[in-house]
Write a structure and sequence with these properties.
The structure holds three protein chains of three kinds. Chain A is about 75% helix and about 0% strand. Chain A is mostly helical. Chain A has a single domain, classed as MetI-like (MetI-like fold, Orthogonal Bundle), CATH 1.10.3720. The two termini of chain A are about 25 Å apart. In chain B, strands 4, 5, 6, 7, 8, 9 and 10 form a seven-stranded mixed beta sheet that branches. Chain B has a three-stranded parallel beta sheet with strand order 2-1-3. By secondary structure, chain B is of the alpha/beta class. Chain B is globular and about 65 Å long. Chain B contains 14 helices and ten strands. Chain C contains 13 helices and no strands. The longest helix of chain C has about 35 residues. The chains are: A mainly alpha, B alpha/beta, C mainly alpha. Chains A and B meet through helix 3, helix 5, helix 8 and helix 10 of A and helix 1, strand 1, strand 2, helix 3 and helix 7 of B.
Chain lengths: ~270, ~350, ~270
């Protein structure tokens, strides 16, 4: 590592610059008094004050966060048990068909998922609104959780389980003490990717929502025809900074607390 | 294991807390009245101050939801499960919605402000006697261009887009009716043509346009034209007005061979739960002062004669956005061509897009 | 075997999900694909799919999905590897994920500005004497932005695979005189194949149905099967044809799954207690 240290640093720095460039670009223009994402005129806070005076927008943001967190959590729980079930499936062809079925929702275009979920919900009489949106987000996030958890499960040396069983551990104990800790990085990866799926989704939410329930993505997409206002840039800026602070803060607190809550922390 | 459970509990606690914050905000912003009017409209297609004003005047609470295409809106209304009291479809969508019985008739006696509307915009072919719809905004399809990036070209004719000097410069909209319609118009045919030969001719002519095409895009066209990324674009008048507001170099023209003339209209979908509230809202939006304020915010042209009186001369006398009746008579409204024909248009458009690769 | 019940109990939600949200919609799509616009039962949609235009679409979809996956892998593998060597690796990994939580449409608009003729990239190129270069609406910009979107999905599983690698294995390889390259190809890479496979699936499969950015960044010069389906559903409202393309998309996905699938026997061989 010592020899390649500098090259490695440059490479990683470049990756991070590219990942953050569009976000910094958005934030830069959120201070533009010109009113659009070109020709920076002069510095202003007006778009930020517009965010705080728009109660409707704040409520939509809160809805978005609730749906994202809850759907990612529930999808992770279902997905983790699903993937454990798949991996320990005896019959190889059933296992492979399950894996294919698992990925159907990843390959399907959002419009198709949205339209068919809408038909499904109206058929079984689910009221369109918070519940239907939450259920849909759980549904389309499960496959990505399974995809992220599976490789960790496959890596797991089954002699570990055998050893635990030989020592007299029950199934529940093996699950809690051996399997879950081992696949923990996969579980967190699945949770975070499910969050991404939920926050990015526009088409499915649009179709299955109703009764005044809306998410940020739906709001932003429908604004496109008349132009997205810089209020949205300002809002994204705030979301970004808050998320960053939360994540960094949480990380260092958990580091200090000796009980690290992170992905793949070795114990 | 413990840390996973702790993280899960933390998430649930955060969600519950957020839920209560939202509930609090909802109560503090919601007026006492339980009667709501749910409006389903294009995003940013109304001045939000007017919604507050309507709430104050009428005592109804407004729920405002948005869609981004006529077709998506129709699918939602058709499937049910929602209670939209007002929707704002374009004219060809109204024909389809009428066909599928998705609309409720409008009681004109509850809308005294209807007299403010210019009679020119009433009783049109897509909805005779305005039984189901009241005009909201209207506009044209045309060419927005930047003279400072071109050498003296004007766009009096669609053929100007085929000029070899525009190689890789032209932006088109990602919409079959507009692009195929442009091909038909440029040949002097109707943009509602269902004649196979005319369509084949238009398609052949469009394939010669491909070297000039820079991109086929959607609403991003505003950003690109304002930034002077391209000198010419096919677009809608309201969007052109937005662009010209932000970049004064730009100009807009509707070619002489003819073009599309469209109307967005307020309707009451069959899913409406508050029909009285819907009528009250329509009447409110037709008020001269309200309509003038809304037009100022949105940028499209309004059909409200009384409101035009109140607006800035400079805007309403601009022939590009409020063309004379003579020019308007040369423009065509889209007919509902039926699914089969729409399929043909889309297939031709897909071929055109594939060839511009 | 008496614990069989507890095992299936945990699996109930997952199977319920498969039944309701996977099998039911597939059945619905397969059903719709058998009807034409006027609601007559027909196989015409399937015949239509085999016309030149849809075959061309399929090939170009696969080609771009392939390119996106390859470039994602090339960028992601070293990133994941170097991340595992950093001091606060979990923190850095989280920082890779955070950008994906900002709305995609907004980021895409930002890219339109960044790649524009007067954007920062062109300004930068100008310094080095290059004239204004058209970057937007090219294959380059399309693949760049697609890789940008999918990169976390590739990095995460690879990172997880690398992170648990036993360092003594690498030391052993070195001690035995293997070069860095041999260590990588013979020791490190084979141990991370499961992670790489998961990454490839998480990138390649959704790439086949990318839409939106095909219009915003590629100016519709790239058309994927997903875009075609979207058009059929939303514009033409020909749900029959849209469903037919969707059926083919699912078939293609299954083929991809079989190719990238597990050739080894998974965990079943030894995990007899399960």
């Amino acid at each position: 590592m010592e020899r390649t240290g500098n090259a490695a640093k440059i490479y990683l720095t470049l990756i991070f610059i590219i990942l953050y460039a569009p976000i910094l670009y958005l934030i830069f223009y959120s201070f533009n008094s010109g009113g659009s994402m070109n020709n920076f005129e002069s510095f202003t806070w007006e778009h930020y004050s517009a965010v705080f005076s728009d109660t409707r927008l704040i409520m939509i943001l809160i809805n978005t966060v609730i749906v994202a967190l809850l759907s990612a959590l529930i999808a992770t729980i279902i997905g983790v048990f699903g993937s454990i079930g798949i991996v320990y499936m005896r019959n190889k062809s059933i296992r492979n068909s399950l894996l294919s079925l698992n990925n159907v929702l990843i390959v399907s275009p959002d419009v198709v998922i949205g339209a068919s979920f809408l038909i499904l919900f109206t058929m079984i009489g689910v009221k369109l609104g918070f519940a239907s949106v939450l259920i849909s987000h759980i549904a389309f996030s499960i496959p990505i959780v399974v995809l992220m958890v599976l490789p960790k499960l496959q890596e797991m040396n089954s002699s570990l389980i055998d050893a635990a069983a030989d020592l007299g551990a029950t199934k529940g104990e093996i699950l809690r003490r051996v399997i879950i800790p081992f696949i923990k990085p996969g579980i967190f990866a699945g949770f975070f990717m499910a969050l991404t799926y939920s926050l990015d989704d526009f088409a499915v939410t649009f179709f299955v929502t109703g009764n005044g329930f809306s998410t940020l993505s739906v709001e932003i997409y429908s604004m496109a025809r008349a132009g997205i206002t810089l209020t949205i840039n300002a809002l994204s800026g705030i979301i970004f900074i808050v998320t960053l602070l939360l994540v960094v803060g949480y990380y260092f607190i958990s580091q200090r607390g000796k009980n690290p809550v992170g992905m793949g922390v070795r114990k | 294991m413990k840390d996973i459970i702790r993280a899960a509990v933390a998430i649930i606690v955060v969600c519950i807390a957020l839920f209560f914050v939202n509930d609090y905000l909802n109560k503090s912003s919601g007026k006492a009245s339980s009667d709501t009017v749910t409006i389903f409209n294009w995003g940013e297609y109304i001045d939000p101050d007017l919604l507050a004003q309507f709430e104050e005047q009428s005592g109804y609470r407004v729920v405002y939801e948005t869609f981004d295409s006529n077709e998506a809106m129709m699918t939602k209304i058709e499937q049910g499960g929602t209670s939209y009291d007002i929707a704002v479809p374009s004219e060809y969508a109204i024909e389809k919605m009428k066909e599928n019985e998705l609309l409720l008739p409008i009681d004109h006696s509850k809308i005294p402000n209807l007299e403010n509307i210019d009679p020119y915009f009433l009783d049109l072919s897509f909805d005779p006697k305005n039984e189901f719809s009241i005009p909201y905004f209207w506009g044209t399809v045309g060419i927005v261009y930047n003279p400072s990036l071109l050498d003296g070209q004007t766009f009096k004719s669609w053929d100007a887009l085929w000029d070899p000097s525009l190689k890789g410069q032209v932006l088109l909209v990602d919409s079959a009716r507009e692009v195929i319609g442009m091909g038909l118009n440029s040949l002097g045919y109707s943009l509602n043509s269902t004649n196979e030969n005319e369509l084949a001719e238009a398609s052949a002519k469009l394939s010669k346009l491909t070297p000039n095409v820079k991109a086929i895009i959607g609403d991003e066209v505003t950003q690109l034209m304002v930034n002077e990324e391209a000198p010419v674009a096919l677009t809608w008048s309201g969007q052109a007005a937005d662009m010209m507001w932000e970049n004064e170099e730009l100009d807009y023209a509707v070619p002489e061979e003819g073009s599309n003339f469209f109307f967005d209209n307020m309707v009451i979908p069959k899913t409406a739960a508050n029909v009285d509230g819907a009528h009250a809202f329509i009447n409110f939006m037709l008020d001269a002062e309200v309509a003038a304020q809304n037009a100022d915010y949105v940028g499209y042209s309004i059909p409200n004669a009384a409101a035009i009186e109140l607006m800035d001369e400079e805007v309403t006398s601009d022939e590009r956005f409020y063309p004379s009746e003579e020019v308007r008579d040369n423009l065509e409204v889209y007919n509902n061509l039926g699914f089969e024909m729409l399929g043909v248009y889309n297939e031709l458009f897909l071929k055109f897009k594939m060839s511009s690769n | 075997m008496q614990t069989k019940n507890t095992k299936t109990f945990y699996l109930i939600p997952y199977f319920a999900w498969i039944l309701l949200f996977v099998i039911a919609p597939i059945a619905l799509i397969a059903y719709y694909s058998l009807f034409d616009l006027s609601g007559n039962f027909t196989l015409d949609n399937y015949k239509n799919f085999f016309t030149s235009i849809y075959l061309k679409l399929t090939i170009s979809s696969f080609w771009y999905a392939f390119l996106i996956t390859v470039f994602s892998l090339i960028v992601a593998y070293p990133t994941a590897y170097l991340l595992t060597k950093t001091k606060h690796k979990q923190l850095w990994l989280l920082l890779i994920i955070i950008p994906s939580w900002i709305n995609l449409l907004l980021k895409t608009y930002a890219f339109i500005g960044i790649f524009g003729l007067y954007g920062p990239i062109n300004a930068f190129l100008n310094v080095f004497g290059f004239g204004e270069t058209q970057i937007l609406f090219t294959d380059f910009s399309f693949i760049f932005v697609s890789v940008y979107i999918f990169i976390p999905f590739m990095i995460l599983p690879i990172f997880n695979a690398l992170d648990k690698l036993n360092p003594s294995l690498i030391d052993a390889s070195r001690d035995l005189g293997a070069s860095s390259w041999t260590t990588f190809t013979k020791v490190i890479f084979p141990l991370t194949t499961n992670g790489v496979k998961a990454g490839i699936q998480a990138v390649f499969i959704p790439s086949l149905s990318l839409f939106m950015i095909t219009r915003l960044i590629a100016g519709n010069k790239v058309i994927t099967l997903g875009t075609a389906i979207e058009q059929q559903f939303l514009v033409t409202q020909n749900w029959g044809m849209g469903s037919t393309i969707a059926v083919f998309l699912i078939i293609f996905m299954i083929i991809v799954m079989i190719i990238t699938g597990q050739r080894d026997k998974g965990a079943t061989s030894n995990g007899k207690n399960w």
